[in-house]
Design brief:
Blueprint: E1 2-11, E2 16-19, H1 26-31, E3 35-44
Length: 75
């Protein structure tokens, strides 16, 4: 298990801060000099991270399905 966070970074195209669609470890966020949203900390399986210590876009760490993505409908 590893702790990941939401984070924001500067979008030069729009001249404003933008929240990333990915989650990342503290080390990855510090490496890209982005702003960590401390209150969003959540533990996920380390296998859900890529080589850059970030999740896929639109990853949902609160999903009941492993891997973060909904793959079926439960009735």
């Amino acid at each position: 298990m590893v702790t990941v966070y939401r984070f924001s970074l500067y979008d030069i195209d729009n001249d404003q801060m933008r929240q990333s669609l990915r989650w990342a470890t503290r080390e990855a966020i510090e490496r890209i000099n982005a702003h960590i949203h401390e209150e969003t900390a959540v533990e996920i399986p380390s296998s859900d991270l890529d080589g850059d210590q970030m999740t896929a876009r639109s990853y949902n760490p609160h999903s009941v399905f492993r891997g973060g993505f909904q793959t079926k409908i439960v009735y």
